[in-house]
Design brief:
The complex is a heterodimer of chains A (about 425) and B (about 260). Chain A is of the alpha+beta class and about 425 residues long. Chain A has helices spanning about 25-30, 70-75, 110-120, 125-135, 150-165, 180-195, 210-215, 235-245, 405-415; strands at about 5-15, 40-50, 55-60, 85-90, 90-95, 170-175, 200-205, 220-225, 225-230, 270-280, 290-305, 310-315, 320-325, 340-350, 355-365, 375-380, 380-385. In chain A, the strands form 4 sheets. In chain A, strands 5-6-7-3-8-9 form a 6-stranded mixed sheet, with helices on both faces. In chain A, β8 (about 220-225) and β9 form a beta hairpin. In chain A, α3 (about 110-120) packs across α5 and α4 (about 125-135) packs across α5. The longest helix of chain A is centred in the middle third of the chain and has 16 residues, at about 180-195. Chain B is mostly helical and about 260 residues long. Chain B has 12 helices and no strands. In chain B, α4 packs antiparallel against α9 (about 170-185). The chains are: A alpha+beta (about 425), B mainly alpha (about 260). The interface of A and B includes residues 100, 106, 117 and 122 of A.
């Protein structure tokens, strides 16, 4: 029998909310002689047990404040349980805070070394991996530029590139930070699959049910610090969706943001389904020359400010074929800047104009500052039908063919 | 022991973080690392004006600028260690709450950065010794154990205070005050001999008193340092370091919850 990579035995974690931070407060507390009154205490986790075999991937799902982040913190040894036991065997690396310790005045290269060392790498190891890290980040041209000149996307790319090269035994991932452009996100996923194949144990916190289903061997649904469901990802996700629907506006799930400032503020917006449907009589599947619509079903536990909505249609082989972005179109409409309750966002392509093939639609929604992804999701695979089953190219606009006399062509050129 | 082994594993981080502190501190300033020299130099000018023009202090024939600069450089090391090292945990909150590494790296790196400043400023000390014609004797070798003692003390105080700051933010305001008071309790601007000899057993409980006095004797007076004072100082410093480190590691697990 092999040893577990991760074990949690009846772990509970309590946070005191009224923090003592000055002499005066603690003197006052002493004189009251009643430290730790009931209402000052928040149980972030209550009696949680779990085991993970080496190489296993676990998805943690649940609403904001359910204790997912606390589990990641316990596993990475940042914080200690109030009671119970946490056992972690092997080197842990986390994709929780990408680029932690980056200093804006230092160059990309200097920050790679610093960040790598924080993640537990030796200078020699970093030097050996330096080229791979720089190549992965695609920041060759800017690597000797201070990172204060980087965009937030570049910043995160560099951070991920370092973290992805730590080669840990146990990888902790908080999906919220999976920003960057589509092709970079895709490489991040590839890299994670690669680590999984090499036997890395992965603990994955995500609001993206599709990714949990795709990446994880098992899942745990946490609610209010307790395990509500555990097992096959599909079954656990189904349970979560059932609870969400029951709650309607999510009354029970709602939690005061100020309860604990360390909890992530994301997870208030959940994409429950993404579908791609043809528009037109009798059509059951999208086809090249018919209009189609991408329907994003969302559920906002609380009203959520939204910065940008990005919808990608990606071909089976990973090529991003169509990218629409709410910031570039009429969807700048204020109606799109806040989502509340449940509803559907529909993006219509009229017509679709995609060559026949197999695709998925991917959706990413960022917060008001456009720095963080607050919700993301994927449709299931869909077929686009067309005239040719083996098309060249991806874009099939309706074109008009004509045969014209030479003069016309010349006139046309002259004008151009 | 376990903690030291872990710290050793993270030695590269300690080095890189030390260099980060140095680079960051001087990157955007016009004079760069020149500030490491300029700070004690400016104080030297002020103190020289006061104590060799306005008030006369007996320096046993040593020119006052040299007398005070030899003390100000090591004193600045301690002050810089404390000023930058003590808030290092609280200032790097996003790191401490998100990623695990031995936390003592942060205060230690600041002591390290202050040490590099000191080495840089020492060049000027050597220059001044030459100009004033104080050629080094065999006693100058004492500088090495004196420096070591100073580093031990600085680490001890910085570790302790940085951990306490996590619990009590008031410490942030106490440190500059403490550094100032401490300087007057140390023979930086005046000679040790000004302190009545019957107070010495208490006076030298302050390890910096023995150290600064030692630097003057070995560099300026070509004498051995007062060994009894140094022994007392070494004892205090080592005890403090052991206590501080144990305290720091005991409190470390709750840092992330409190910051």
């Amino acid at each position: 029998m092999t040893q577990h990579a991760v074990e949690l035995h009846h772990v509970s974690k309590r946070y005191r909310i009224g923090r003592l931070s000055t002499f005066r407060d603690s003197l006052a507390a002493l004189s009251r002689r009643r430290p730790g009154q009931a209402q000052d205490v928040l149980w972030a986790l209550r009696d949680v047990s779990l085991q993970l075999d080496p190489g296993e991937s676990l998805g943690l799902i649940g609403p904001n404040g359910a204790g997912k982040t606390t589990i990641l913190k316990l596993l990475s040894n940042i914080t200690q349980p109030t009671s119970g036991k946490v056992i972690v065997r092997g080197r842990v690396s986390s994709l929780i805070e990408l680029g932690a310790g980056f200093h804006p005045e230092l160059t990309g290269r200097e920050n790679i070394f610093l960040n790598g060392a924080i993640l537990g790498l030796k200078r020699r190891e970093i030097a050996r991996k330096l080229d791979a890290i720089i190549a992965f980040s695609e920041l060759e041209r800017f690597i000797d530029t201070p990172v204060k000149r980087y965009s937030s996307g570049m910043y995160v790319r560099l951070g991920f590139a370092v973290a992805a090269h730590v080669e840990p035994d146990i990888l902790l991932v908080d999906e919220v930070l999976a920003v960057g452009d589509a092709s970079f996100r895709q490489r991040c996923m590839q890299r994670m699959h690669e680590l999984q194949r090499n036997g890395t144990t992965v603990v994955f916190v995500s609001h993206n049910m599709h990714l949990v289903r795709e990446m994880c061997d098992s899942a745990i649904l946490l609610m209010e610090g307790q395990v509500r469901a555990q097992g096959e990802p599909a079954a656990v996700i189904a349970e979560y969706e059932r609870i969400l629907l029951q709650c309607g506006t999510g009354g029970e799930l709602q939690r005061d943001e100020d309860d604990h400032p360390a909890f992530d503020s994301e997870g208030n917006l959940i994409l429950t389904a993404i579908e791609v449907l043809p528009i037109g009589r009798g059509a059951s599947e999208p086809s090249t020359h018919l209009p189609a619509t991408v329907r994003i079903h969302y559920h906002a536990i609380r009203p959520q400010q939204v910065g940008r909505i990005e919808v990608l249609i990606i071909r089976e082989d990973g090529t991003v074929c169509v990218a629409v972005d709410s910031s570039l179109s009429t969807a700048r409409d204020p109606a799109f800047s806040e989502l509340s309750g449940s509803g559907v966002l529909a993006i219509t392509y009229e017509p679709l104009q995609l060559a026949a093939g197999v695709y998925v639609a991917e959706v990413m929604i960022t917060d008001a500052s456009d720095n963080l992804v607050i919700a993301s999701g994927r449709s299931s695979r869909f077929h686009v039908h067309g005239y040719s089953t083996q098309p060249q190219g991806v874009y099939l606009p309706q074109v008009r063919w004509a045969k014209q006399p030479v003069e016309t062509v010349q006139t046309y050129r002259a004008q151009a | 022991m376990k903690h030291l082994r872990e710290l050793y594993r993270y030695r590269d981080l300690l080095w890189l973080w030390t260099m980060r502190e140095v680079k960051v501190r001087y990157k955007q300033s016009l004079l760069g690392i020149g500030w490491a020299v300029l700070q004690p130099l400016a104080l030297m000018v002020v103190f020289t004006l006061i104590f060799s023009r306005l008030v006369r202090v007996d320096t046993q024939g040593v020119p006052y600028p040299l007398f005070v600069y030899v003390a100000l450089v090591p004193w600045t090391f301690l002050a810089t260690s404390l000023n930058f090292g003590v808030p290092s945990l609280v200032n790097n909150l996003n790191l401490v709450t998100k990623i695990y590494f031995p936390r003592e790296v942060l205060p230690l790196a600041n002591v390290g950065a202050a040490l590099l400043d000191l080495l840089f400023a020492s060049v000027v000390v050597i220059g001044m010794l030459m100009i004033y014609g104080f050629w080094p004797t065999i006693h100058a070798l004492w500088v090495i154990p004196l420096l070591a003692l100073q580093v031990i003390l600085a680490i001890g105080v910085t570790l302790f205070a940085s951990a306490v700051l996590v619990f009590f933010r008031d410490v942030r305001f106490v440190i500059p005050l403490l550094v100032q008071i401490w300087m007057y309790a140390t023979p930086v601007i005046y000679p040790t001999e000004l302190v009545p000899e019957r107070w010495w057993p208490y006076y030298f409980l302050n390890p910096m008193a023995g150290v600064i006095d030692g630097y003057r004797r070995v560099l300026l007076l070509a004498e051995a340092p007062r060994l009894s004072a140094l022994a007392l100082g070494a004892f205090v410093s080592l005890a403090l370091l052991a206590f501080s480190y144990a305290f720091f590691k005991r409190k470390e697990p709750v840092f992330a919850d409190l910051i």
